[in-house]
UniProtKB/TrEMBL annotation:
GO terms for molecular function: structural molecule activity. Transmembrane segments: none annotated. PANTHER family: INTERMEDIATE FILAMENT, KERATIN, TYPE I CUTICULAR HA7. One of its GO terms (cellular component) is intermediate filament. It comes from Equus asinus asinus. Residues 108-178, 214-241 form a coiled coil. Residues 104-257 form the IF rod domain. Pfam families: Filament. This is IF rod domain-containing protein. Keywords: Coiled coil, Intermediate filament, Keratin. It comes from the Eukaryota.
């Protein structure tokens, strides 16, 4: 942006004695804010109109106010944009009313042109801003649609993987239940085995006792069988003796008390 400064110096008084009054409105560098430049141009226009409508006080030779510019303003203007002001504005000297009105018209025409340029630039910036916003919205919509299209396949894959994970979890739960049941059955069979083992040991101990008893009974049986054989032999002897005795005559039989 440009920086502008418009100064009007009014010299009031006699030929040798001057009282100067300066009115200046400056518009510094405002970056990307065209509204500030428009405001500065409006202030410059208001200052020029106030200068044109001021009350004339002083004793100039023609009874008219003179439009003067300090000597420092005659040098090269250091601010960009102010050198576009026509060169006949602010020249020291005494002018008639018609000449001053022509200068005011030129100044107002110049300010009106700058104001029109600023307004046109503002409108152009607004149009550019609207176009940029439209492009940004279109690009954002395209980006969102492309993102949705790109990630839709991933969403399907994620759903399939989630279904597989759920199936795997159900299978794992079923296997865990089976493992728990197998553990319970193993514990039951282990307890049963231990009880059967204790019972077997008890039966084996009883059988050992019975084997000993059987051996004793076998020995007793053998002894009894031996006694039976001896008794049978004795019985046979007695029977044979009895038969022999019975076969003898009665007088010859031995006497037995």
């Amino acid at each position: 942006m440009t920086s502008s400064c418009i100064s009007s110096s009014h010299c009031l008084g006699s030929t040798r004695t001057f009282r100067a009054r300066n009115v200046s409105v400056c518009s510094s560098d405002v970056g990307d804010q065209p509204g500030a430049e428009v405001k500065a141009a409006s202030l410059c226009l208001s200052a020029t109109q106030a200068h044109a409508n001021r009350v004339c006080v002083g004793t100039t030779p023609l009874g008219r106010p003179s439009l003067c510019l300090p000597h420092s303003c005659n040098a090269a203007c250091p601010l960009p944009g102010t050198c576009d002001i026509p060169g006949n504005i602010g020249t020291c000297g005494t002018y008639c009313e018609g000449t001053m009105n022509s200068h005011e018209k030129v100044t107002m025409q110049f300010l009106n042109n700058r104001l029109a340029n600023y307004l046109e630039k503002v409108r152009q910036l607004e149009r550019d801003n609207a176009e940029l916003e439209t492009k940004i919205l279109e690009l954002s919509k395209c980006h969102e649609s492309s993102v949705c299209l790109d990630y839709q396949n991933y969403f399907w894959t994620m759903e399939e993987l989630q279904q597989k994970i759920l199936c795997s979890k159900a299978e794992n739960a079923r296997l865990i239940i089976q493992i728990d049941n197998a553990k319970l059955a193993a514990d039951h069979f282990r307890i049963k085995h231990e009880s059967e083992r204790a019972l077997r040991q008890l039966v084996e101990s009883d059988m050992c006792g019975m084997h000993k008893l059987l051996d004793d009974l076998s020995l007793a049986k053998a002894d009894l069988e031996a006694q039976q054989e001896s008794l049978k032999e004795e019985l046979l002897c007695l029977m044979s003796n009895h038969e022999q005795t019975c076969s003898l005559p009665v007088g010859s039989r031995p006497f037995r008390p």
